[in-house]
Amino acid sequence: MRRLWLLFTQTVTVCLGILFIVATLRPDWLHSSPQAPSPAPLAPSSPGTPGRAEVSYARAVALATPSVVNVYTSKHINVPMVPLPNDPELNRLFRDIPGFSRRKESTNLGSGVIVRGDGYILTNYHVIEAADAIEVALSDGRQAPAELVGADPESDLAVLKIGLPDLSAITFNGEHQVRIGDVVLAIGNPFGVGQTTTMGIVSALGRNRLGINIYENFIQTDAAINPGNSGGALIDTTGRLVGINTAIYSETGGSLGIGFAIPAQAAHTILDQIIKTGTVTRGWLGIEPQDITPDLARAFGLKQEDGVIIASVLKNGPAWRAGIRVGDIVLQLNGQAVYDSIGFLNQIAPLSPREEVTLLIMRDGKKRDVTVQVGTRPRIRKP
Fold first, then answer.
1. 251: confidence class by pLDDT, cuts 50, 70, 90
2. Which of 124, 305, 346, 352 has the highest Cβ tally under 10 A?
3. Which residues, 6+ apart, have CB-to-CB distance to 315 below 8 Å?
4. Integer Cα distance of 114 and 171 in angstroms
């Protein structure tokens, strides 16, 4: 038995040695069978092609493009005949002098999205701000004057209406949650060159503290957005609207791959209010909240930095009447945690006027509940 085992091990050793030599000196002997042709590169598939992954977004663009319009505005401005220093008081003094300035027409361009088949269009407020006339051009070549239905400068949204038939309204994304990494397409009229589509991904959600609007909750995308794209559509790969393109971060005026869009759900809420009432109503407590910094947390003996401190209270406002004072720390609103001042304002905004809410505050190291009747946020008029 021992001799058989030795014979087996010697045979295996010799075979492995031969295989090693062949693999080192003549590897082609081990691949003598005809090579199969390499697979052809995957070509972009047309919709409905079986067995291939869809790499084209042509269907989504075809669905959304008829709903995206070009918005042209014009307004008349007084231009001084003689250059003046950049001094508002000096300009105000001279602008009413007869013959000192001449009237000049200024034009602006942007984009918009048809959101209802009866002619309602969403765009940015800064696109149509102070316009004397608004013209809309559709992707099929038709043009029409537009009426301003209402605007909300605090969110930088406006609603227009045109009277053309057979309009193609875009589909909102509904309850579908936008995620970081989702592919998105931006459609608009950058630099006035005509309708253009760019592609990117959702880079971030909930962007705020940008100093663009009072209420900020932006979708950030790296899809190329340039001047003229404002008010255009940000869509997903099925052609549904996920946002209204609003702003870019740029030091040169061109796209640097950081663009911001107002989420479609927030835009839809504002759209409904403007169509129904011509304005947007937001909840208001008459307070100015401030973030709790580590220094403030130590000063007030707090173990956490969540919540906001009341920096000022409007006399006779809703919070004042409820007994809230400067220095109070708000920890919760209706049982929901308050983390920072921006988030707190966004929690207050959807509340209905005359609705009663409960604030959990801390004063002198003790927690207490305070009931506040929500007021209506005063409209801010721009000069």
1. low
2. 124
3. none
4. 10
Is residue 145 predicted with pLDDT exceeding 90? yes
Is residue 126 among the annotated active site residues? Answer: yes
Q: Which CATH number among 2.60.120.590, 2.40.10.10, 3.40.50.450, 3.40.50.700 corresponds to the domain 183-277?
A: 2.40.10.10
Asked if 230 and 247 count as a contact pair (C-beta separation under 8 A), the reply is yes
- Give one word for 301, left, alpha or beta, with left for phi > 0 and alpha for psi -120 to 50: left
Query: What is the arithmetic mean of pLDDT over 97-104?
Result: 57
Percent of the chain with pLDDT over 70: 78
CATH 3.40.50.11060 fits 283-376, yes or no: no
- The span from the CA of 308 to the CA of 289, in Å, is 6
Q: Select the more confidently predicted residue: 9 or 95.
A: 9
Tell me how crowded residue 191 is: count the other CB atoms within 10 A of its CB: 13
Instruction: Compute the distance between CA of residue 245 and CA of residue 250 in angstroms, rounded to an integer.
Output: 15
How many C-beta atoms surround the C-beta of residue 242 within 10 A?
A: 23
- For residue range 130-143, list pLDDT tens digits in order: 888 999 999 999 99
pTM of the complete model beyond 0.85: no
Give the C-alpha separation, 13 to 18, whole Å: 9
Give residue-wise pLDDT tens across range 200-227: 999 999 887 777 777 778 999 999 888 8
Which SS3 state, helix, strand or coil, does residue 40 take?
coil
Q: Do domains 183-277 and 283-376 have the same CATH topology?
A: no
> In 225-310, which residue ranges form alpha helices assigned H by DSSP?
264-277, 294-299
250 assigned to active site: no
- 247, 263, 265: which is closest to 255 by C-alpha? 247
Catalytic residue among 230, 236, 255, 341: 230
CATH entry 2.40.10.10 includes domain 66-161: yes
Tokens of 377: 């946020």
Whether 156 is catalytic? yes
Task: Grade residue 174 by pLDDT with cuts at 50, 70 and 90.
Answer: confident
Q: Report the C-alpha gap between 343 and 355 in whole angstroms.
A: 19
At residue 42, the pLDDT reads 42
In the beta sheet, which residues pair with residue 368?
361
